[in-house]
Amino acid sequence: MTAIPSGFDIKMKKIRKTRKIKNTNQTDLFELLERLEQLKEVESELNMTSSLGLLELSTIVEKQIDWVDLELVS
With left for phi above 0 and alpha for psi between -120 and 50, is residue 22 left, alpha or beta? Predict the structure, then answer.
């Protein structure tokens, strides 16, 4: 039978805890990157709409309302 060195169990617990922290940090990083991409898309859409005139915006809104009406009827 092999002897387990003293402190081995504590060391393994620390390793497991470190892995959990790394996994959590990686998950947080991926979520932040995903959120950053969403914010870039929103920024792009805001820039586009800010360059449109009032008539163009009202036309877009009217078409969206028409699409909603069509979806509700279907």
Answer: alpha
Q: What is the token pair recorded at 49?
A: 């709409």
- Kindly report the CA angle at 30 between 28 and 34, in degrees rounded to 5? 115
| Residue in this structure with the two tokens 């914010």, named with its chain if needed | 39
Where are the chain's structural domains? 11-73
Higher pLDDT, 48 or 2: 48
Residue-wise pLDDT for 9-51, tens only, equals 766 677 677 676 667 677 788 889 999 999 999 999 888 888 8
**What does the alpha-carbon distance between residue 71 and residue 15 come to, in Å, rounded to a whole number?**
54
C-alpha angle 8-10-11 in degrees, rounded to nearest 5: 65
What are the two backbone dihedrals, phi and then psi, of residue 3, each rounded to the nearest 5 degrees?
Answer: -85, 135
The reported pTM is: 0.45
